[in-house]
Amino acid sequence: MRPGAFLATTLFAAVPAAAQSMQDVGRLAGVTTVDVRVEATWDDAITMDAGGATGDQFRQALLMTFRETISEADAAPGLLEGALTTVTCHVDTFYEPGQIIYSLRTQLEQPGDDGTHVITWIRSWVGSFNMQQMHVMFTLGTQCAEQFLNDWNSAN
Questions:
Q1: Angle CA 119–77–145, to nearest 5
Q2: Fewer CB atoms inside 10 Å of the end CB: C or N, the chain?
Q3: What is the chain's mean pLDDT, rounded?
Q4: How far apart are CA 107 and CA 85, in angstroms?
Q5: How crowded is residue 46: how many other Cβ atoms within 10 Å of its Cβ?
Q6: Which residues pair with 141 in a beta bridge?
């Protein structure tokens, strides 16, 4: 065994199970009411070089589709502006000539013991599409909501 291999094996083995379970759908059990919000990091090259939407237009569409998908679902937590529990859709975009690369993160935030919000559940994934499929950008809010709803329904 290489000198550092034992230490690395020991460190990984010592990590408690709770530290490895941020994606555990059980963390969504009992969630009955949420507020929704979106965060987006927009690569301005999408607008400047490719003639696509602006960052503000994207954020508006992201919030609209995220909120609508949750509110129109047959089985979902209730939406309440200002609720203590928040589900967030976060999107980062990157432009390469002819292609948009994105990362999505859907997370649930709840008040911790000291009252500050902490992330209690999270899912993330990445994707890409070519500029001729720019309309796909406007389905990312739906994708975030569907991931949340699928996991929420598994737990409730």
A1: 65
A2: N
A3: 85
A4: 11
A5: 21
A6: none
Joined together, the tokens standing for residue 8 give 């690395």
Strand pairing report for 99-111 and 117-130: antiparallel
Whole-angstrom distance, CA of residue 20 vs CA of residue 13 = 11
> What is the DSSP code string of 68-98?
HHHHT-SS-PEE-TT-SSEEEEEEEEEEETT
CATH number among 1.10.4030, 3.30.160, 3.20.20, 1.20.1740, domain 35-155: 3.30.160
Q: Using one digit for the tens of pLDDT, what is the confidence trace for 68-109?
A: 999 999 999 999 999 999 999 999 999 888 888 999 999 999
d(CA 65, CA 138): 8
Q: How far apart are CA 12 and CA 119, in angstroms?
A: 22
**How far is CA 65 from each of CA 38, 45, 53, rounded to the nearest angstrom?**
10, 23, 16
- The set of long-range contacts for 67-72, using a CB threshold of 8 Å and a minimum separation of 24, is 67/36, 67/141, 69/141, 69/142, 69/145, 69/146, 69/149, 70/34, 70/36, 70/145, 70/148, 70/149
Residue 104 confidence (pLDDT): 95
